[in-house]
């Protein structure tokens, strides 16, 4: 057993991944100590967490710091912080060992980047970080001795299965996809999809943005790009298979044709815990697969015609450069518009493709170029939506 618990900063503590991470940490008080947490607007939830875990710092990035009574909600000893700069300083502080990046969207990039720049272990759930800045993040991690451990269930599965061989013995990876709620919808039925329909996922309970991404299969597109950077693969080495039961979380095929899979009931606490305890495995609070019951595992190829996001994801993984920045930003704007009944479900992926084709490609963007292109794309996507709908 370790003598000292690992000190953890959790960005996005009030979200779906955030809450699952809190479960894991609460289950292992001897292994992990939560010292810093962030949220955007959910003040009371963050204050509850600050009390429960007696954290040193709590960061609220989306709330007016002069809000009456704000500070009194938090424990007296807790530093209540507000700015992005303060978030980055907390993440980089000497006493932090592990940073869990669980903010949703491009808003998670700065925290992830600060973590690798400070040489921390980065447990990465915020896939958008890798999609928009995978090359930059990898470079910073390499230069500063940071370790990046995936939390996304597919990437955790691949990371685990890859331990069976050397990197140059991997021939390809196969990402599993549940297929989402519209797996069996016809194109005509897909024209009628409402936000309420898209927010009902068959196998996972997640935040609203990623739930819509799963329905369009943009989530799988983002995961293809994420995998390209996490595992340094060529786009031609990445495949997708639809597996509605979400029990096998992905496959790695080695050069001899042997395929390794990782399986467990769908529950994010397992990949989160593995990212925190790596390289060790420890007993945890996730459910186990019950072989006293019958299980049927199905696999089928994705329908590229009804789900054009898959092809888009492969193209972006191949093109690299700034492609991920624009596709991600367009998707964030389009999903938000769809959830607010301002854009049709079937327009989300076309919006992303339109922005990919319209933007000025840069092959090795720096941080400033990434941020300004993200902003450009958000404005252009709004114009595109006005023109098309
Ligand atoms: P949620 O929407 O449930 O939570 C998002 C978190 O981010 C909240 O803590 C929220 O704070 C915070 N947040 C939102 N906007 C901002 C912002 N602009 N600046 C700073 N913080 C912000 O998302 P999920 O937990 O579902 O997903 C988080 C990330 O993990 C995503 O990148 C997703 O793709 C990835 N992921 C999620 C999985 C899941 O099972 N949920 C599985 C695999 C990956 P507040 O509550 O105050 O608004
Ligand atoms: Mg996933």
Structural class by SSE content: alpha/beta
Largest beta-sheet details: 7 strands, parallel
Q: Give the termini distance in whole angstroms.
A: 60 Å
* Record field, number of beta strands: 11
Please provide the ordered H/E string of secondary-structure elements: EHEHEEHEHEHEHEHHHHEEEHHHHH
Helix content: 40-55%
Q: What is the typical, i.e. mean, pLDDT?
A: 97
Beta strand %: 5-15%
Report the C-alpha radius of gyration, rounded.
Answer: 20 Å
Q: Overall 3D geometry?
A: globular
* Associated small molecules: NADPH dihydro-nicotinamide-adenine-dinucleotide phosphate, magnesium ion
How many helices in DSSP terms? Answer: 15
Descriptive labels:
alpha/beta, 389 residues, binds magnesium ion, binds NADPH dihydro-nicotinamide-adenine-dinucleotide phosphate, four-stranded mixed beta sheet, globular
Give me the secondary-structure topology.
Blueprint: E1 6-11, H1 16-27, E2 32-39, H2 43-53, E3 57-60, E4 79-81, H3 84-92, E5 98-101, H4 109-117, E6 121-124, H5 127-144, E7 147-150, H6 153-161, E8 170-177, H7 187-190, H8 195-198, H9 208-216, H10 218-230, E9 238-242, E10 248-254, E11 259-263, H11 269-277, H12 309-319, H13 323-339, H14 348-358, H15 367-388
Parallel strand pairs: 1-2, 1-5, 2-3, 3-4, 5-6, 6-7, 8-9
Antiparallel strand pairs: 8-10, 10-11
The chain binds NADPH dihydro-nicotinamide-adenine-dinucleotide phosphate and magnesium ion.
């Amino acid at each position: 057993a370790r003598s000292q618990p690992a000190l953890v900063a959790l960005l996005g503590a009030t979200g779906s991944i955030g809450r699952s991470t809190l479960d894991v940490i609460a289950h292992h008080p001897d292994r992990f100590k939560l010292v810093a947490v962030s949220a955007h607007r959910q003040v009371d939830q963050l204050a509850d967490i600050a009390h429960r875990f007696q954290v040193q710092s709590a960061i609220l990035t989306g709330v007016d710091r002069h809000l009456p009574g704000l500070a009194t909600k938090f424990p007296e000893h807790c530093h209540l912080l507000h700015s992005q700069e303060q978030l980055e300083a907390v993440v980089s502080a000497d006493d932090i060992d592990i940073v869990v990046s669980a903010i949703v969207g491009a808003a998670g990039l700065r925290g992830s980047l600060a973590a690798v720049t400070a040489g921390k272990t980065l447990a990465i759930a915020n896939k958008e970080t890798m999609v928009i800045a995978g090359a930059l993040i990898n470079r910073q991690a390499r230069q500063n001795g940071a370790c990046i451990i995936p939390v996304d269930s597919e990437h955790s599965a691949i990371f685990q299965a890859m331990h069976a061989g050397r990197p140059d013995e991997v021939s390809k990876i196969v990402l599993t996809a549940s297929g989402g709620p519209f797996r069996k919808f016809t194109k005509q039925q897909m024209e009628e999809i409402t936000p309420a329909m898209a927010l009902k996922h068959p196998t996972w309970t997640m935040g609203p943005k990623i739930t819509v991404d799963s329905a369009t299969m943009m989530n799988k597109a983002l995961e293809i790009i994420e995998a390209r950077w996490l595992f340094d693969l060529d786009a031609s080495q990445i495949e997708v298979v639809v597996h509605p039961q979400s029990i096998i979380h992905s496959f790695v095929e080695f050069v001899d044709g042997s395929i390794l899979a990782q399986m467990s009931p769908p529950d994010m606490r397992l990949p989160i815990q593995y990212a925190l305890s790596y390289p060790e495995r420890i007993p945890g609070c996730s459910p186990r697969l019950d072989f006293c019951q019958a299980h049927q595992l199905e696999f089928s190829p994705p329908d590229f015609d009804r789900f054009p996001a898959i092809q888009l994801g492969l193209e972006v993984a191949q093109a690299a450069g700034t492609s991920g920045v624009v596709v991600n930003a367009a998707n964030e704007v389009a999903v938000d518009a769809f959830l607010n009944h301002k854009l049709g479900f079937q327009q989300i992926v076309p919006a992303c493709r339109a922005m990919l084709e319209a933007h000025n490609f840069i092959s090795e963007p720096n941080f400033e170029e990434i941020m300004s292109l993200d902003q450009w794309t958000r404005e252009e996507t709004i114009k595109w939506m006005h023109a098309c709908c």
